Amino acid sequence: MSLTISDLCIARGGVAVLEGLSFSLEPGQALILRGPNGIGKTTLLRTIAGLQPPVSGVVEGGDETIAYAGHSDGIKPTLTVAENLTFWAKVFGAEGIDAAIAAFDLEILRDRPAGELSAGQKRRLGLSRMLVTGRPIWVLDEPTVSLDVKSVAMFADAVRAHLGQGGSALIATHIDLGLDSEVLEVGPYKAKLPAIDDFDGGFL
Ligand SMILES: Nc1ncnc2c1ncn2[C@@H]1O[C@H](COP(=O)(O)OP(=O)(O)OP(=O)(O)O)[C@@H](O)[C@H]1O
């Protein structure tokens, strides 16, 4: 399943942040999004995941194919690790949770209420949800926040396995994940806002 982005313009809080973005993501491919804080990476991923509409342009191939992990881990604190994953498996119609538990080394935490996990453990649980969605396109926003070196490697292995099975991944991250991936620097697509001088001139 391919994802194609054509001439996309996106906004946050009513202000255009990125414009003129076009790219595609093919099965087996990972694409890393880079750019300075506040440039619009999260806004771009939210738009691609269908959480907000674009100002203009088209996202093709994103219906029911995307599993999205944003800044929040999306876990239910009173449910155990296994119950959280079982909940998501039922939502997405997945077979079981054992592969997700194993991929993110959650076996020992299986029966622990998710609210009692450390930040890194919560992040591992949040990321393991990707495996029970069965969806081919992973859209991940700063997935390695709170992860230690071993857990980052675990995550990178999970992405590699996903790509090996014909999946794809679009990842906003500031760190090197060691993946064989292309990088899209979004800075050049910053939306052109009126220059301050223009604003002052119009105001005075
Ligand atoms: N809820 C919001 N309402 C209004 N503006 C917002 C909101 N969230 C973010 N913004 C603004 O939208 C712009 C793009 O933010 P966004 O979170 O997409 O950037 P980012 O590239 O992901 O940044 P970072 O690397 O810091 O996570 C920023 O100027 C930000 O201040």
Task: Summarize the structure in words.
GO terms for molecular function: ATP binding. InterPro entries: AAA+_ATPase (IPR003593), ABC_transporter-like_ATP-bd (IPR003439), ABC_transporter-like_CS (IPR017871), ABC_transptr_haem_export_CcmA (IPR005895), P-loop_NTPase (IPR027417). Keywords: ATP-binding, Cytochrome c-type biogenesis, Membrane, Nucleotide-binding, Translocase, Transport. Residues 3-204 form the ABC transporter domain. This is Heme ABC exporter ATP-binding protein CcmA. With 204 residues, this protein is of the alpha/beta class. It has a single domain (26-53, 63-186), classed as P-loop containing nucleotide triphosphate hydrolases (Rossmann fold), CATH 3.40.50. It has helices at residues 41-48, 81-92, 98-103, 119-133, 149-164, 196-203; strands spanning 3-12, 15-25, 30-34, 56-60, 66-69, 137-141, 168-172, 182-185. A 5-stranded parallel beta sheet has the order 5-6-7-3-8, with helices on both faces. A 3-stranded antiparallel beta sheet has the order 2-1-4, covered by helices on one side. Strand 6, helix 5 (149-164) and strand 7 form a beta-alpha-beta unit. Helix 2 packs parallel to helix 4 (119-133). The longest helix has 16 residues, at 149-164. The model has no long low-confidence stretch (mean pLDDT 93). The chain binds adenosine-5'-triphosphate. Adenosine-5'-triphosphate (ATP) binds at residues 12-13, 17, 35, 37-43.
